[in-house]
Write a structure and sequence with these properties.
Order of helices and strands: HHHHHHHHHHHHH
Oligomer: single chain
Structural class: mainly alpha
């Protein structure tokens, strides 16, 4: 029963995934932006090194040598585990709402393993989770994909909500370019209202678009579900504000928690952008802390890459189990419980 219900969705999903024929300029754009970001960072670092009459290598080496790495690791490792647990909680909650009853402990292997693929692309990691739940629990592929889309939709509003709070607290100290945040927030709120009216059938009641499998989660969702996902994710951001404030002090830059609350959601939004565009997040540290070019480049590079690769290391712990349940003979074909 399980296999027959999921086969059409899997076939459709494979057909969609197999369409990579985007224009060359579109594929090259993220790499071009990445190169521009690195060139910008280099000019800033070279200028700072020149003011101190040292080479770029010596300048950066001095910054790295002054960081108490033991204390930094003692801060970052627990935070990475906390993020993993909260991230898994969000996935567990959404899957149990819209797809199947799955235990929280059974979500941990695939959420952890997906971090390995997320090194290349966050959306590939979400695709792996969809495949896992399809194979393990017999949930039709497009329905799981709909839940992944729902999570991405909520992530945008989660980051925008906290960016709006941060702007309200620290807008005067932010560069002028970030004055667009309130306008984006108002626009996103209006879009959300229209979005909810559409999926409740109030707008365009005769439309068949909402009936497509990819919108399964959005048809099932209640308005409070969106708010619940934001609430479930928020402890990760609030703990990150404190962690990043302390970590930044290890690089020789003092900043208050309220100031960090104004900056971090914006940087996280940049980091959430797929692929090489993530370099924008590193660049933002330099923009937000002028006069600390070397420190902020080193800090942004280390924080961002440690987080990505340590999460992947967490995934390695669960990789054997995830592979066994994905590609081995499904032991729990009836019911999918472990």
């Amino acid at each position: 029963m399980t296999q027959s219900s999921s086969t059409p969705d899997e076939a459709t999903e494979r057909n969609v995934i197999a369409r990579p024929n985007m224009p060359l300029w579109q594929r090259a754009l993220p790499w071009i932006i990445s190169a521009i970001c690195f060139a910008y960072l280099y000019t800033k670092i070279a200028g700072a090194a020149g003011r101190e009459s040292v080479t770029v290598v010596s300048y950066l080496s001095g910054i790295f040598a002054g960081v108490p790495w033991g204390s930094w690791l003692a801060l970052m490792v627990p935070y990475s585990f906390l993020f993993f647990l909260i991230d898994s909680l969000v996935l567990w909650r959404v899957v149990n709402w819209y797809n199947a009853e799955v235990r929280y402990v059974d979500i941990l292997p695939i959420r952890g393993s997906s971090y390995i693929l997320s090194i290349l692309n966050e959306q590939v990691g979400k695709g792996a989770m969809a495949l896992y739940l399809n194979r393990r629990n017999g949930v039709p592929g497009w329905e799981v994909g709909s839940s992944m889309l729902f999570i991405m939709f909520c992530e945008f509003y989660y980051l925008l909500t906290w960016a709006s709070v941060g702007y309200a607290l620290q807008g005067d100290s932010l560069p002028d370019v970030f004055s667009v945040i309130p306008k984006v927030a108002v626009g996103a709120a209006l879009v959300f209202i229209v979005f909810r009216l559409f999926f409740r059938g109030t707008l365009f009641p005769n439309s068949t678009v909402r009936d497509k499998p990819v919108f399964h989660a959005f048809r099932q969702a209640r308005t409070w579900h969106f708010g619940m996902i934001i609430l479930l994710r928020s402890p990760a951001l609030l703990s990150a504000v404190w962690v990043y404030t302390v970590a930044l002090s290890y690089f020789g830059v003092e900043v208050g928690n309220m100031q960090m609350l104004g900056y971090l959601p914006i940087i996280f939004f940049g980091a959430a952008t797929p692929g090489p565009m993530r370099t924008v997040a590193i660049t933002l540290w330099v923009v937000l802390f002028p006069g600390y070019e070397g420190q902020m480049t080193a800090f942004g590079f280390v924080q961002h890459n440690f987080f990505i690769f340590f999460n992947a290391a967490i995934g390695l712990v669960f990789l054997n189990r995830a592979n066994r349940e994905l590609f081995g003979q499904p032991e729990q074909q009836s019911g999918g419980e472990a």
